[in-house]
What does this fold into?
Amino acid sequence: MVILTSGSNQVHIKMHIGIDLGGTKTESIIIDENGKELERIRRTTPKNYNGTLDTVCELVNYLEDKYKKSCSVGVGSPGALSKETNCIKGGNSTWLNDRPLKKDIELRLNRKIFLENDANCFALSESIDGAGLNHEIVFGVIIGTGVGGGLIINNKIVNGFNNITGEWGHNQMPIGTNDKWKRHDCYCGKKGCIETFLSGPGFSKHFYDIHKIELDAKIIQENANKGDEKSLEFVFQYLDYLARGLSTVINIVDPGAIVMGGGVSNMKQIYGNINSKLKKYVFSDTVNTKVLKNIHGDSSGVRGAADLGRSNDTI
Ligand SMILES: [Zn+2]
It folds into this structure.
């Protein structure tokens, strides 16, 4: 423990560093034991392994020097650590795959660190002091270029036996009452995965299938918000698919809160309409699950990385 001297009183303050290894930016944050953010720094992500190690160490050293603290370090990474090899698997930042990222950072920093999948970090942050606060079971969803998720029970990440808990995006999209969309191939080798329907690129692709117009998901959403009928109808079809996908999660883990993250969380039509659609697909007479927009926004992943250390000793 580090001791700060404040006047004549000695004040014990623990601080926690979080680092989020994004595909384009690497972000770091330092928070105190109450979760208060003290500083945030962003760097362009070096798209190679050694550059990633250098950046992580440089950020940790800079923050520890500045705040004169030895902090816990948590890293949010794409993919997951393989239980067989202790190397990263399945990350879309491919330069990290098949590398012992956690061990190499520990060697460089000469201490143990925490490392978790970035969607797990997002979910943890929203469970601890975000939109999922006070819910026993929180499922954090990230829908952007891909579809991922993280499961938190009593403010602890559930990793699962194979380290894949929360990967609902590669389940098959269930058949529904409104099957207008085709089943596309997924990069994972299967066809019709939930991700191919719900991700941003999936959203655009299905809009093209139906209307033969190539538009970015964000533009379709903006058009819907402006009242364009064609786009709005498409958004409501999307909500039906979203409900089908989420019903597979609810039927298994039945979370009190599902917190939405990633670009799709900005789709304002979700929040007032999803529960009536969930009722069609969830095996229950009532579906009172709260489907909520994240509170910490873009910073949730990096906060969650810092929370890995904070939750280990204070929460
Ligand atoms: Zn897939």
